Amino acid sequence: MCSPEHFAVEYAINPWMDVTAPVDAELAVKQWDRLRETLVNLGHEVHLLTPERGLPDMVFAANGAFVVDGTVYGARFKHEQRAAEAEAHRAFYESQGWRFIAPSETNEGEGDFAYVPEAHGGLILAGHGFRTEIPAHAEAQEALGRPVISLRLVDPRFYHLDVALAAIDDANIVYFPGAFSAASQKVLAQLFPDAVVADDADVMAFGLNLVSDGLNVVLNSEAAGLAEKLKALGYHPVPVELAELKKGGGSVKCCIAELRR
Ligand code: ARG
């Protein structure tokens, strides 16, 4: 994770960002800190990147890399405003002794890659259409040695995979069908017949931008409907308020890069 000390909406690279809307950076830090505490209280170890002035989106740490089986596939940002973030992530992984593979292709890490370890022996789901480019899907498969399923995102509001789909445990996912092309919806229905299907209200509340340990599902507090659905299925929803960061087009999952050994 990376503190939003320098968080601001200084440019607009997704439809949620409005450079004229005021952002309370202090409140953003407070809300983010509650998220960090929530993870620690659930028993997770949280490493911190040092925020850098001039990189207002650095709080969205999910975009800096994608890690599976102890191997890190680095990010290469689409927009030049965020390009320098990739280096901070690379330095972190290299200093911690992770195996790091530098990318040649444009990809935004866990923003567009999700891993479902017990689905079909371990599947990577990958989005394209707005940020990550298709050649990066093949590059990730070669880097990580896991099958990559390409999914086409078609709605600019859901510009990253992780705002429209998430793993809720080791074998199942939740997704919003309307974010995907008709063919990609068919692929998801075939691979995940028991998936939780989210609705408009869930996705607009950034509810799908969640992290789960298989039982506890940490998600945006605005997504009350999705929390109810998950509860009925036996999960334990843990709502967190992240209204300031939503102004940058992100929520829970965007703030967290998961380290998978
Ligand atoms: N403002 C950031 C961008 O547009 C938000 C990134 C959100 N991160 C995510 N993993 N979806 O790039």
Could you explain the architecture of this structure?
The protein has helices at residues 25-41, 85-95, 134-144, 182-191, 200-204, 224-232, 243-246; strands spanning 65-68, 71-74, 99-101, 113-116, 123-128, 148-152, 165-167, 173-175, 196-197, 211-212, 216-220, 236-240. The protein is of the alpha/beta class. It has a single domain, classed as L-arginine/glycine Amidinotransferase, Chain A, CATH 3.75.10.10. It has a 3-stranded mixed β-sheet with strand order 1-2-3, sandwiched between helices. The protein has a 3-stranded mixed β-sheet with strand order 4-5-6, with helices on both faces. The two termini are 17 Å apart. The model has no long low-confidence stretch (mean pLDDT 98). The structure holds arginine.
The level of helicity is 25-40%
Number of domains: 1
User: What strand order characterises the main sheet?
Assistant: 1-2-3
Averaged pLDDT:
98
Q: Name the structural class.
A: alpha/beta
CATH class: Alpha Beta
- What ions, cofactors and ligands are bound? arginine
CATH architecture: 5-stranded Propeller
Q: In the CATH scheme, what's the topology name?
A: L-arginine/glycine Amidinotransferase, Chain A
CATH homologous superfamily classification: L-arginine/glycine Amidinotransferase, Chain A
Strand content: 15-25%
Low-confidence stretches: none
* Main sheet record: 3 strands, mixed
- SS summary, helix count: 7
- Count of individual beta strands: 12
**Topology as H/E string?**
HEEHEEEHEEEHEHEEHEH
List the helices and strands and how they pair.
Elements: H1 25-41, E1 65-68, E2 71-74, H2 85-95, E3 99-101, E4 113-116, E5 123-128, H3 134-144, E6 148-152, E7 165-167, E8 173-175, H4 182-191, E9 196-197, H5 200-204, E10 211-212, E11 216-220, H6 224-232, E12 236-240, H7 243-246
Parallel strand pairs: 2-3, 5-6, 8-9, 11-12
Antiparallel strand pairs: 1-2, 4-5, 7-8, 10-11
Residues 13-14, 17, 57, 60, 62-63, 82, 111, 160, 162-163, 248-250, 254 line the site of arginine.
